[in-house]
Structures are given as structure tokens and as C-alpha cells.
Design brief:
CATH topology of the largest domain: conserved putative lor/sdh protein from methanococcus maripaludis s2 fold
Number of strands: 19
CATH architecture of the largest domain: Beta Barrel
Strand content: 35-45%
CATH class of the largest domain: Mainly Beta
Oligomer: single chain
Helix content: 25-40%
Number of helices: 3
Shape: elongated
Order of helices and strands: HEEEEEEHHEEEEEEEEEEEEE
Largest sheet: 13 strands, antiparallel
Structural class: alpha+beta
């Protein structure tokens, strides 16, 4: 059989892979980069009011007026509920009468002491003349003066006690005026006019929360507590405000882990000036995490994952070499990896398991 001449020209091309090995693959390379390990992890937190209290009656009485309702914005010292207790008026009137009687007794004792003091002074002057006054008489007048002075001091003490009693009665009467202890918003109303309330009883009269300033309580896992620092800013978002981001400042670090969850309850101060947030929300926090060591980053497309291994392909003496890696957190179009790599090394930018171990690279 005759062989066409053009087969002789094709033989070098067909035999080249056998004579010289595999043909070199043209690939694009990328450099392994080293960056500080700064990233964020999503943590679910809870918004709480900065201040909150259940307002209770400090004295028993009847509810006369309720001046606020659920949703009312109040200021510190503002009257919220007016109670009435007629027996307190009687107690205050009795305390005032006792004070007036004590003051009258004091005035009488002071007048008597002044008269006794004058008698003593005249008797003492007369006693300077020998024989004019008996010695026993001067002694009696002096004892009377001492007794009058002691009575004055006793009356002064009675006046002070009566004044204190009246002040206490008036203070108790002031408790009938239930006022706001701080600026905030009424979140619940549990009483109505005509109800009888007891001091410190349940349920409370009202519930008050300060919502212009909120606490964002973030349970930070033990793994991430090493990078905590007061004053660091964190961002978060809530499902009620899709597409909108909020921020706060780390303010309180307890430096103690919860024994059950193994997390640290860190508080972030949040200013809620536009009332876009509310206590009880569960935001997702982009919690910043950093490490003392740098991470190696390669293009995401460089990492090849098969059922058996995860690897990148480097050039070793002009040939492909598979290097096993462990993927870490991503940053944009790059991903951090751990393996037998170093910064500045070249890896195949678009890795594939079709680029076999030992295959020439160009």
C-alpha cells in the first residue's frame, strides 16, 4: 500500500508528545498576597432600653388622675399619676398642730427663762453687798435659772421633732404625685382612675423606658473576645429597616463569659435619635474580628475543590504542583487559605483539576 506523502509531514506532530512529553499549558498566574486578618462575622444581638423601670406607688391611695398613656413621651419630673389619700391630709394637719403647740411651749419657756435669768442677775448683784442676800437664796435662784434653761432646750428639741414629723408627713403627701424618674416613653399603662393601689404592690402603675439611647447586647463567642476594645465602632442592621445600616460604639465589656453559652455579653451604645429602632429587636451585627497574624489570600478562582481534596496549583520548576489548602474567610474576590504557601508565590489564577500534577506550564 502506498502511503501519501503528507503523512510524513504529520509524523513529527503526532510523535512530539511521545518524544518530548506533554505539551505545555498556557495559564494565567496570580500572586499570593498577605493581609492583616481583619474581617467581620454576623452575630445576632438584642436591643434593650438604656433605662427602664416599672413605676409603682410609694404610698397607698386611690388613683385620682392618669395624665399619660401608652406611647406618651415624658420628661424627668413630669407628673404621671395623681393619687388621693384623705387620711394623709389629716396626718399633715395634726403634725402642723403639734408643731404650733411645740413652738408655743418654746416661746413660753424662753420667756420664763428670761425672767429667771433677770432675777438671778439682780440677786447676784445684791449679793455683792455683805449681808444683803442670804447665800441659800442666791443658790435657789441659780437652780431656778438652770432649770429654766434646761426647759428651753427641751422645748427646742420638741419643736425640731415636730418639724421633722411635719416634713415627713408632707413628703409622704408628695408621694401622691407620681412623677417620671427620667426622660423616656410610656410603654404600658396598668391603672385607671378610681383604682385602689398599694405601696410597692403589683401590678405597677406604668412602665417607662428610655429609647432615645439604647443598649445593643451582643453575645460574643469566646473565640472572638480577644479583639474586644472599648470605643470601637460596629455596624448592624434590622429586618424592620431592610437595606439600612446602623452603627454603635462598644461601651461596656464585662470581662466574664456566660458559663452556659461560653459567650461574653458586650454592650454597645446606640443613639436612636430618629426612633427607627425599638427595644426587643434582634439585629444582625457585623462584628469585627482581627488576629495578631496575617493571612494569605489567593483569588477565589484559584482554589479547586474536589470530592477528595481542596488545593491550589503552583508552578514548580515549570510544572504544575498541587498544594493542599484549607479555606478561610473571604474578602471580596479573594479568599484566605492555609497551606504550604508563602507570600509572593505564584498560583494558577483559574485552577482546575484538569491541569494534572506535573503538567508543563507556560
Amino acid at each position: 500500500m502506498n502511503t501519501p506523502k503528507h503523512w510524513f509531514f504529520l509524523l513529527p506532530v503526532l510523535l512530539a508528545p511521545l518524544l518530548y512529553g506533554q505539551s505545555a499549558s498556557h495559564v494565567e498566574m496570580a500572586q499570593v498576597e498577605s493581609h492583616p486578618s481583619v474581617r467581620t462575622v454576623p452575630l445576632t444581638a438584642e436591643l434593650q432600653p438604656f433605662l427602664q423601670t416599672e413605676i409603682q406607688a410609694r404610698v397607698p391611695g386611690y388613683v385620682e388622675r392618669v395624665l399619660v398613656d401608652r406611647g406618651t413621651v415624658v420628661r424627668q419630673g413630669q407628673l404621671l399619676v395623681q393619687l388621693s389619700a384623705p387620711e394623709m391630709d389629716s396626718q399633715t394637719s395634726a403634725a402642723e398642730a403639734t408643731l404650733h403647740q411645740a413652738e408655743s411651749d418654746l416661746s413660753q419657756a424662753q420667756a420664763q427663762a428670761a425672767a429667771t435669768s433677770s432675777t438671778y442677775e439682780r440677786t447676784a448683784d445684791a449679793a455683792k453687798t455683805p449681808g444683803a442676800v442670804a447665800g441659800n437664796e442666791l443658790l435657789q435662784v441659780q437652780k431656778q435659772k438652770d432649770a429654766s434653761d434646761a426647759l428651753v432646750e427641751s422645748r427646742k428639741a420638741a419643736v425640731k421633732a415636730a418639724q421633722d414629723h411635719l416634713n415627713a408627713a408632707r413628703e409622704m403627701q408628695n408621694y401622691l404625685r407620681v412623677v417620671a424618674p427620667f426622660d423616656g416613653i410610656i410603654t404600658d399603662r396598668l391603672v385607671h382612675p378610681g383604682m385602689m393601689v398599694n405601696s410597692g404592690g403589683q401590678p405597677p402603675l406604668l412602665k417607662l423606658q428610655q429609647v432615645s439611647h439604647l443598649r445593643l447586647v451582643v453575645p460574643v463567642p469566646e473565640t472572638y473576645v480577644g479583639s474586644l476594645a472599648n470605643g470601637k465602632s460596629v455596624s448592624f442592621h434590622v429586618s424592620a429597616q431592610p437595606g439600612k445600616s446602623f452603627s454603635g460604639t462598644i461601651a461596656r465589656i464585662p470581662h466574664a463569659l456566660d458559663p452556659q453559652s461560653r459567650s461574653m455579653m458586650v454592650e454597645v451604645d446606640v443613639k436612636n435619635t430618629k426612633d427607627a429602632l425599638a427595644p426587643g429587636m434582634y439585629p444582625t451585627v457585623d462584628w469585627p474580628v482581627s488576629s495578631s497574624t496575617d493571612l494569605l489570600f489567593v483569588p477565589t478562582s484559584s482554589v479547586v475543590t474536589t470530592t477528595e481534596r481542596t488545593f491550589v496549583i503552583i508552578s514548580s520548576n515549570g510544572r504544575a504542583h498541587w498544594v493542599d489548602v484549607v479555606k478561610g474567610p473571604a474578602s471580596g474576590d479573594h479568599v484566605s487559605v492555609r497551606g504550604d504557601l508563602h507570600s509572593g508565590q505564584l498560583v494558577v489564577k483559574r485552577g482546575t483539576d484538569e491541569l494534572r500534577e506535573g503538567q508543563p506550564l507556560r
